[in-house]
């Protein structure tokens, strides 16, 4: 499920240039699509538009939360985590079942990739996820530029995401002012 703040995402609210770039990438089916740029440009909002309009199965995950869940599976005694259901119940999820879901979905949306520097083991897990999606619809948002991305992850991950499968991916570099800051009422107070 997309996060609360982007559930009402509408293409008309995405910048025209970003919207055109994304639509072009989706039509060309050049996977993965990496949307990169500073905070507040609407990358997650635009990805939510993709998420909400996708006609097949789709999974949205915050990359940090996903890595944490998989690591929790690995380190728990039961090798699983308890996941709450909307009806109030829960179910046990195992690492392999997470990978299976990520592999089998029509589209995987990974938000905020690289916000926190992953450990070596988390990088390995992230690479597993990327490998599962080779040639399949995958959209990623990140605040990292190409040099930062390679530094935070490694050359292998950088090559797979920024180069795509056999050089067929799409990288959309966003450069604009923080949209969250426009219209913000700033009040200066002196005591």
Key descriptive features of the protein:
single chain; 191 residues; alpha/beta; Rossmann fold; five-stranded parallel β-sheet; 39% helix
Write up this protein:
Strand 5, helix 5 and strand 6 form a beta-alpha-beta unit. This protein has helices spanning 16-28, 43-53, 63-75, 95-104, 120-132, 146-152, 155-162; strands spanning 33-36, 58-62, 80-84, 90-94, 107-111, 138-142, 170-173. It has one domain: P-loop containing nucleotide triphosphate hydrolases (Rossmann fold, 3-Layer(aba) Sandwich). The protein has seven helices and seven strands; from the N terminus they run αβαβαββαβαβααβ. The termini are far apart. It is globular and about 50 Å long.
Brief description of this entry?
The protein is built from seven helices and seven strands, in the order H-E-H-E-H-E-E-H-E-H-E-H-H-E. It is an alpha/beta fold and 191 residues long.
Helix content: 25-40%
CATH architecture: 3-Layer(aba) Sandwich
From the N-terminal CA to the C-terminal CA, the straight-line distance is 45 Å
The name CATH uses for the topology is Rossmann fold
Broad structural category: alpha/beta
Element-by-element helix/strand order: HEHEHEEHEHEHHE
Any low-confidence stretches, pLDDT <50, length ≥5? none
Task: Using the alpha-carbon principal axes, give the shape.
Answer: globular
Count of β-strands: 7
- From the alpha carbons, calculate the radius of gyration and give it in angstroms: 18 Å
Strand content: 15-25%
Number of helices: 7
Strand order of the largest sheet: 2-5-6-1-7
**Overall pLDDT:** 86
Considering the protein shown, what is the CATH homologous superfamily?
A: P-loop containing nucleotide triphosphate hydrolases
List the domain count as a whole number: 1
């Amino acid at each position: 499920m997309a996060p609360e703040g982007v559930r009402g995402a509408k293409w008309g609210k995405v910048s025209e240039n970003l919207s055109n770039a994304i639509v072009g990438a989706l039509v060309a089916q050049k996977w993965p699509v990496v949307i990169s740029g500073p905070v507040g440009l609407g990358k997650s909002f635009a990805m939510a538009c993709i998420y909400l309009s996708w006609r097949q199965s789709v999974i949205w995950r915050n990359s940090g939360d996903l890595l944490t869940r998989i690591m929790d599976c690995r380190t728990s005694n039961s090798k699983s985590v308890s996941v709450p259901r909307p009806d109030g119940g829960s179910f046990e999820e195992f690492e392999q079942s997470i990978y299976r879901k990520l592999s089998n979905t029509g589209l995987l949306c990974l938000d905020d990739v690289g916000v926190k520097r992953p450990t070596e083991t988390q990088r390995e897990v992230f690479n597993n996820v990327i490998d599962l999606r080779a040639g399949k619809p995958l959209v990623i948002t990140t605040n990292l530029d190409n040099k930062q991305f390679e530094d935070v992850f490694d050359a292998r991950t950088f090559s797979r995401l920024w180069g795509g499968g056999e050089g067929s991916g799409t990288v959309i570099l966003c450069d604009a002012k923080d949209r969250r800051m426009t219209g913000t009422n700033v009040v200066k107070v002196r005591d």
